[in-house]
């Protein structure tokens, strides 16, 4: 199961190489973020916090994401492996950090978010069909959500090419719906002229509101890195995923800021009526504003775009998570079953089915416990995102530390920017953890401690416990992992020459 024997090859895990190009990889990255859903549920919350400075918060929240994207790009150029953060952190900091931060944290965060994506996709689709009673039924929504999980698992099982083709239509619908909403909102009578003051980073009144808004924005961008898990199946695996990562993040920030400007111009940030400061509007900004901007018929199309957005992200998650597990297994850090690939479709067959079932089980269990508990589980993802993004940014600077004197480009792109992004992310982790301890943060608490904090930090601590068991099962990885993870990746001397 470990990979010390035999020559290392860039595509040695049974996946289909050279099967997706740059455009398809960008589509997979955009779809994994669920842009229509993300802006719909986050814009109002950011506006509640900082008012008309929501576009500024979106831009500032993008900065550490962009810096982290540079880290992902440089690490992928040197070590294109579908295990991504697992391999990179193992190589930089050792098997304990790689397994817990780059492996477990990413896997558990994705499974949690997939549960809510399935639920949102089911509820919004039922609402789009006019089945309001069904959309209000927890049982019906959960049942439809489980069916959606089964559907996307089937598509993911059949291969990344099929998933990418499906995503073209899904991403296209989302971007078209957001563009139509924005253009018409600006043109409506009574719309306020946009102001450059809305993107003034120095206009925030206090650190607390600024930090809270930026933390909310971390979630809105999260997911683009899923595209890099397909690196061993892309054309030019060392370069295409990194380029797609930067391109997808830039497309996202332009889309989000444009939509935020349009919504604020049309509705304002007041606390009554359609204002984004109204809690009823904040809960689903697009769902509330789209019918007023576009009319009922086209407004329903935006609702469909939100549903499609959630399902598209669910599909990318169902495709990406098994590839992380496949890499961990191939490198001897998980049971051998996760490394099994389908002989025809060349996909991680066992892992795809396993995580599909696991997502459905987690969804049902959290729903049975409490709808509030499921909501807090989603909020806790911000901790997990900041944790593994931050460590990966530092891993980039550390891995390339001996090359930083080669040129000013290397110093900036491989060292300064990734390290700055990593430190920003870890600062966000500490700040959000501090805020989440408050029992009033989220909807649940235990013993005077916020349920969001317990779920977020608890997930990491649970991973540490599982890792202790894994060390007894896979001692060779935890002994030799730092050197052996390169066994199924492009050899570093070849990647260095290509750079």
Automatic annotation (TrEMBL):
Keywords associated with the record: Cell membrane, Membrane, Transmembrane, Transmembrane helix
Protein name as it appears in the record: APC family permease
Recorded topology in the membrane: Multi-pass membrane protein
Gene source species: Streptomyces lateritius
Major subcellular location class: membrane
Database matches in Gene3D superfamilies: Amino acid/polyamine transporter I (1.20.1740.10)
Pfam families reported in the protein's UniProt record: AA_permease_2
Protein's UniProt keywords contain Cell membrane: yes
Tree of life domain: Bacteria
